[in-house]
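Quick one, tokens below:
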């Protein structure tokens, strides 16, 4: 859970941790959104890695290759493509809610919207599990303007919302149901 990841991040002395043995795809009635939440909470919460597990792959039955064409594996491909952008390794978790100041949900349940900023304050990235409005402190990004994008975490479809001033606070509402 996001709360466990936060607890790991708060340990002193800090040590690198990897999110392992979350809920596997095709086990316990897990949804695609749950699988994506585990990955994004880890990446934006200070973990140095995340393992994706699939109930049809982990023990490598003779049919394991068919398990590579699933919602979970497609979601992890998108997750990896987004996080290979320059600067992903410098993400700093926003547990103090200085970047996303409202709409972040509850860290103790599946509503938690994780946010991190790049150390150089070049960008903010958030994972929002569910439809809602969030408030972003735009001054947490350096420069005169910031491009804002929505990416559907399930499908990968993206939409440029616009370019906004990097001063004050601004509300953004997800484009529909699902996770963003």
């Amino acid at each position: 859970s996001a709360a466990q990841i936060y607890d790991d991040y708060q340990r002193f002395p800090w040590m690198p941790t990897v999110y392992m043995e979350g809920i596997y795809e095709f086990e316990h009635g897990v949804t695609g959104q749950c699988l994506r939440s585990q990955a994004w909470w880890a990446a934006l919460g200070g973990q140095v890695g995340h393992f994706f597990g699939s109930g049809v792959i982990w023990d490598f039955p003779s049919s394991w290759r068919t398990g590579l064409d699933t919602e979970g594996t497609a979601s992890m491909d998108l997750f990896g493509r987004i996080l290979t952008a320059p600067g992903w390794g410098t993400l700093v978790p926003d547990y103090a809610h200085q970047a996303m100041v409202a709409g972040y949900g509850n860290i103790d349940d599946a509503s938690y919207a994780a946010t991190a900023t790049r150390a150089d304050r070049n960008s903010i990235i958030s994972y929002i599990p569910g439809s809602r409005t969030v408030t972003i402190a735009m001054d947490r990004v350096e420069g005169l303007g910031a491009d804002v994008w929505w990416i559907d975490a399930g499908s990968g479809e993206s939409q440029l919302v616009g370019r906004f001033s990097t001063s004050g606070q601004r509300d953004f509402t997800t484009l529909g149901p699902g996770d963003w």
